[in-house]
Design a protein that fits this description.
It is a single chain. The chain is elongated, with a radius of gyration of 40 Å. It folds into three domains: about 70 residues; about 35 residues, no CATH class; about 45 residues, no CATH class. The chain has eight helices and four strands; from the N terminus they run αααααααββββα. The longest helix is centred in the first third of the chain and has 19 residues. By secondary structure, it is mainly α.
């Protein structure tokens, strides 16, 4: 026999799970599917036969209606098929070590972008728009220029709470935005009288 590609050993074919193995072949599945049309035929007959009506108006009949609903049987019996289908071995060559390392590196990069480390989060950066209300361009930010001007106008000597002066010098000059913070704090704190 010649060594040709056609005479190479065929790859093992991986059997795929069949839905009939779970939905019809077990004895309990056949019994369940056979009982469903019988139940619904009797339920339909109860509309014409008043003797059957009290049974189908009971709570027990409500449970039987759910039990013999065709989608209930499909979901319960199909659960084994779905589990076997997810656990099936995949066809093809297994991944090499380099491919596994590459996939792990991609996963780490994606997690880093989604959940950055604490030192890369924009929470404390006033120049990053993703930092919320502390972003300097946000009108609600205490660092925004318009809010600073409103705050400074509250501190003005004419109408602010710190309208007092130290040594006849105003605490705040709005003209050049220079103010004496230490003087404002010292004038607000009551001084102890020296003896």
């Amino acid at each position: 026999m010649q060594n040709t590609p056609s005479s190479a050993i065929p790859e093992l074919e991986i059997p795929q799970p069949a839905a009939a193995d779970w939905l019809w072949r077990p004895w309990y599945a056949k019994l369940w599917w056979a009982a469903i049309p019988i139940y619904w035929t009797v339920a339909a007959a109860s509309l014409k036969n008043p003797a059957l009506r009290p049974f189908f108006e009971s709570a027990f009949a409500g449970y039987l209606t759910i039990l013999f609903f065709p989608l209930t049987a499909l979901l319960v019996l199909g659960f084994g098929f779905v589990r076997a289908w997810l656990d099936r071995p995949f066809a093809g060559d297994p991944l090499s070590d380099e491919e596994i390392e590459e996939l792990e590196r991609i996963k780490i990069e994606q997690e880093t972008l989604r959940y950055p480390p604490d030192h890369l989060r924009p929470v404390g950066d006033i120049y990053d728009p993703f930092s919320g209300t502390i972003y300097i361009g946000n009108p609600l930010s205490p660092n925004n220029g318009s809010r600073i001007q409103r705050f400074l106008s509250l501190l003005s000597p004419s109408n602010g709470p710190l309208a007092r002066s130290v040594e006849n010098r105003p605490l705040l000059k709005i003209d050049d935005c220079s103010y004496d913070v230490i003087g404002a704090v010292m004038s607000a704190v009551p001084r102890a009288e020296s003896a």
